[in-house]
Amino acid sequence: MKKVLFMLSSMNVGGVEKSFLSLLSTFPKNQYDVTLLLLEKKGGFLELVPEWVKIEEVHWYTSTKPIIMQSPHQTVKGYLKNRQPHYIPGFITSYLLSKYLDDRYSYYKHILKNIPFNQSIYDIAISYQGPTDIIDFYIANKVKAKKKITWVHFDVSKHYINQNLYQRLYSKFDQLNVVSKLASQELIKLFPSISNKVKVFPNIVGASIIQSMSKEKVEFDDNFQGVKILTVGRLSEEKGQDFAIMALSKLIKLGYDVRWYCIGEGKYRKQLEMMVKEHNLEKEFVLLGSTSNPYPYIAKADIYVQTSRHEGYCLTLAEARCLAKPIVTTNFIGAYEQIKDGENGFIVQMDDEEILRRIKLLIDNSEIRGKFSENLSNKVEMREGSSVSYLV
Q: Each residue of 1-44: pLDDT tens digit?
C-alpha cells in the first residue's frame, strides 16, 4: 500500500475542500493508505471525508496561528505578556530581514523552527491548498516523502504571493499541479525555473453525483414567480458579489421581476449587507448562507452567474454546467476552459454593466437560454480532470 499524506487548513465548505473530496473518490482504498492532516480539525465538509481516511490535526498551530495572523507589534506584546522576552530579538530580526529582502522564507523558518518533523515517512506528501505559505512550508521542510506535490488553485497573476518565498519552496517539490492550463502559464511566467515540474490537473467533477444530489428537496423561495439568479461562492471581494448587487439594482430599476441569491459565507458579509441596504434590495438580494449541497438550488435557478474577479478553474462554474444552467461568467482565466462564449454561456468583462447586459439578454430571449442548456446537456462529462494515477 502506498502511504499518501494530504494537508489542508480545515474542511470548511469551499471549492478547494470540495475538489479534494472529489479527488478522494478516485482513490482505490485497498491500494492507498491515506492520511488527511489539518491545521484545524473542523468544517462543514469534515463529515464527508470517507471513513477509510485517517484524519489528524497538527498540535502546533494553536500557538503559531496568532504569530502568523496578527501584527508583529501584537506578537511582541504577547511575548512580554507571557514573560517570554527572550523570543523577541530573534522574532524582530527575522521579521525585519524578511521585509528588507522581500523574502518571507527566513521569517517562516524562524517561527516554525521549533516545530518537530513529522515522524511518518510517506510515498507521496501533498500540500493541497496551495499556494498557502504555512502548509507549503511544512510539507517542504517538515515531512519526509519520496515525492512531494503542491497544488495551485488560483491565478497567481491576480493574487499576491511572495516570489522569493515560493521560489525556494517550489524548488523542494517534485511536482506542481495547477487547475487550469492558463493558470499554469501564469505560474511559469512568474517562476520559469520550475516549468518542468508543472502539470495541469483540472478539478474533478462527478456529474452523476451532482445530478443525483440536485434532486434533494429544498425550499427555495418557491412562491416567487419571477426570475431566479444564483451565485455560489465564498463571500469575499475576489468572488465579486458586489458586481451582483450593482447589476441587480439596475435590473430592478428597469422593471424586471428578479431575485438574486448567493450561497456562501465569509468575512465580506457585512459589507455586502450594507450595500444591499444602501440600494434598498433587502427583498431582492438574498444571502442564503453556506450549505454542503448547493445543487438543488442551482437546479431550481433560472440563470447561474459567476461574478469572480479571479479564479484558477472555478468548481462552482463546472457544477452549474453539469446541471445545464444558462450561465453568465466574468472573464477570469479558468472561464475560457469551461465556457465557449455565445455557445454554452456568456463570458463578460468584470463590470456590472456587462453582467447586466448579458443577464437582460438571457431573460428576454428564451431561445438563447434553451440553446445554452441544450448545448451543456449534450456535453456533460461524467468526470473532468485526472484520476489518482496521475499523482504517482
A: 899 999 999 999 888 998 999 899 888 889 999 999 999 999 98
Q: In sequence order, which residues have a C-beta less than 8 Å from that of residue 42 and are 6 or more positions away?
A: 10, 11, 12
pTM of the model: 0.81
Range with the poorest average pLDDT among 160-164, 171-175, 316-320 = 160-164
Enumerate domains of the chain plus CATH numbers. Answer: 2-60+115-201 (3.40.50.2000), 70-112 (no CATH), 208-377 (3.40.50.2000)
Instruction: Scan for cell 504577547, then name that residue.
Output: 78
Q: Are 52 and 29 in contact (CB under 8 A)?
A: yes
Residue type at 41?
A: K
DSSP state letters, 3-23: EEEEEES---SSHHHHHHHHH
Summary mean pLDDT of the chain: 92
Residue 23 near residue 16 (C-beta atoms within 8 A) = no
Distance of alpha carbon 254 from alpha carbon 361, whole angstroms: 13
* 3-state secondary structure at position 346: strand
> How far is C-alpha 166 from the chain's CA centre?
19
* Cross-strand partners of 125: 5, 148
Q: What is the mean pLDDT of residues 234-243?
A: 96
Query: Is the link from the previous residue into 131 a cis peptide, with omega within 30 of 0?
Result: yes
Residue from 230, 246, 131, 141 nearest 186 by CA: 131
Please state the φ and ψ torsions of residue 168, each to the nearest 5 degrees: -75, -40
Only one residue has cell 520559469, namely 192
**Cβ-contact 193, 173 below 8 angstroms:** no
At 68, which helix (H) or strand (E)?
helix 61-69
Percent of the chain with pLDDT over 70: 96
Backbone phi, then psi, for 274, in 5-degree steps?
Answer: -65, -40
Per-residue confidence (pLDDT) for residue 130, from 0 to 100: 85
